[in-house]
Design goal:
The structure is a single chain. The chain is an alpha/beta fold. It folds into 2 domains: about 140 residues, Aspartate Aminotransferase, domain 1 (Alpha-Beta Complex), CATH 3.90.1150; about 220 residues, 3-Layer(aba) Sandwich (Aspartate Aminotransferase, domain 2). The chain contains 13 helices and 12 strands. The protein has a 7-stranded mixed β-sheet, with helices on both faces. The protein has a 3-stranded antiparallel β-sheet with strand order 9-12-11. α6 runs parallel beside α7. The protein starts with 14 loop residues before the first helix and ends with a helix. The relative contact order is 0.17. This is Aminotransferase. It catalyses: L-aspartate + 2-oxoglutarate = oxaloacetate + L-glutamate. One of its GO terms (biological process) is amino acid metabolic process. It comes from Thalassovita litoralis. Belongs to the class-I pyridoxal-phosphate-dependent aminotransferase family.
Length: about 400
């Protein structure tokens, strides 16, 4: 009998973390590696937020806090939801965790029973299905195809819902595709959900402020207020505020659900880092004027990467509405052979050979549930992106 839990056997390690770790290992060995795997802004946390963290240390705010967040941060979160989304929440409806991932994990652990189903559009963030599996549920995938701009249709959602469906797990703008649902597109989905009152909505809004061109972000409870009482709206400070390492995520929803999430957290990590919480207060309450210029920079990088990848015969790379990822399809490269005699049979082989031959680290599409493709994070410098895309062009040109 294995010493390890059978539950653990149901899941796999995070592929995105694995790619980042492999890139770091190769760099440590002296390889010239450009890592485009991590979803992490390449600029520092804004100075006023860093200063708030330092101030918290100097003022001795280093002790345990309430399990799911200090009152000041919960108030700031309520103000953010009202300001940005027109949603009214009280502090009792808010939970703060160690990153958005913990909030999602807590919510699913607190609500899923054996055979409960969670509908997940694919491609998806790699952790969604494995968290569902850890919690004892069943992930149900709905394919958002390239032809549909990586968005699911109302008909697809309708057909996926069964009597066992507990959650619809929604992410816009999306990791890994950057696809964003318009108000009308989201309203069509919420109309479906209104016909199925047993289905709750778990919406991951982590990339809310990373929206480009004419795309306007919206969230399900905002689009359909009648879903308010069965929606958990998850967000955090990691992406827009360049606070990935501070590890603060949060969510708002019905008090009974928040209380259940609090119970899970009380018996796992307890409170998030006190210093990070005070920095997050400043992030949400302080100046927001750096977000727009950062988005201009991200949009420029997006256009650089999309333009260079679409020059490659065999690759199709849509232009995303938000986040900082592109998800190019490589159907035209499958079956081709590298100069070393390796046949590109799938996107994992493509990513492996690309790294071995060029030092460019990307994440293969199968990790996100839709192939053949790969994900690039363009949250790095223009020079690095230019060089990486040039290497990808050379690698693909050498395939026969």
């Amino acid at each position: 009998m294995s010493f390890l839990s059978q539950t653990l056997a149901r899941v796999k390690p995070s592929p995105t973390i694995a790619v980042s770790n492999l890139a770091m290992d190769l760099k440590a060995q002296g390889r010239d590696v450009i890592s485009l795997g991590a979803g992490e802004p390449d600029f520092d946390t804004p100075e006023n937020i860093r200063a708030a963290g330092i101030r918290a240390i100097e003022e001795g705010k280093t002790r345990y806090t309430a399990v799911d967040g200090i009152p000041e941060l919960k108030q700031a979160i309520c103000a953010k939801f009202k300001r940005d989304n027109g949603l009214d929440y009280t502090p009792k409806q808010v939970t703060v965790g160690t990153g958005g991932k913990q909030v999602l994990y807590n919510a699913l652990m607190a609500t899923l029973n054996h055979d409960d189903e969670v509908i997940i559009p694919a491609p998806y963030w790699v952790s969604y299905p494995d968290i569902v599996l850890l919690a004892g549920g069943i992930p149900v995938f709905v394919e958002a195809t390239l032809e549909n701009d990586f968005k699911i249709t109302p008909d697809q959602l309708e057909k996926a819902i069964t009597r066992n469906t507990k959650w619809f797990l929604f992410n816009s703008p999306s990791n890994p595709t950057g696809a964003g649902y318009s108000w009308d597109e989201l309203k069509a989905l919420t109309d479906v959900l209104m016909r199925h009152p047993h289905v709750w909505v778990l919406t991951d809004d982590m990339y809310e402020h990373l929206a480009y061109d004419d795309f306007k972000f919206c969230t399900p409870a905002q689009v359909e207020p009648r879903l308010y009482d069965r929606t958990l709206t998850v967000n955090g400070v990691s992406k827009a505020y360049a606070m990935t390492g501070w590890r603060i995520g949060y969510a708002a929803g019905p008090e009974t659900l928040i209380a259940a999430i609090r119970k899970v957290q009380s018996q796992s990590t307890s409170n998030p880092c006190s210093i990070s919480q005070w920095a997050a207060v400043e992030a949400l309450n302080g100046p927001q004027d750096f977000i727009a210029p950062n988005n201009v920079m991200f949009a420029r990088r997006r256009d650089l990467v999309v333009g260079m990848l679409n020059e490659i015969d065999g690759i199709t790379c849509p232009t995303p509405e938000g986040a900082f990822y592109v998800y190019p399809f490589i159907s035209g490269l499958i079956g081709k052979t590298t100069p070393k005699g390796v046949t590109i049979t799938n996107d994992e082989v493509f990513a492996t050979e690309l790294l071995n031959d060029t030092g460019v680290a990307v994440v293969f599409g199968a990790a996100f549930g839709l192939s053949p493709a790969f994900r690039i994070s363009y949250a790095t410098s223009d020079d690095q992106l230019q060089e990486a895309c040039s290497r990808i062009q050379g690698f693909c040109a050498a395939l026969t």
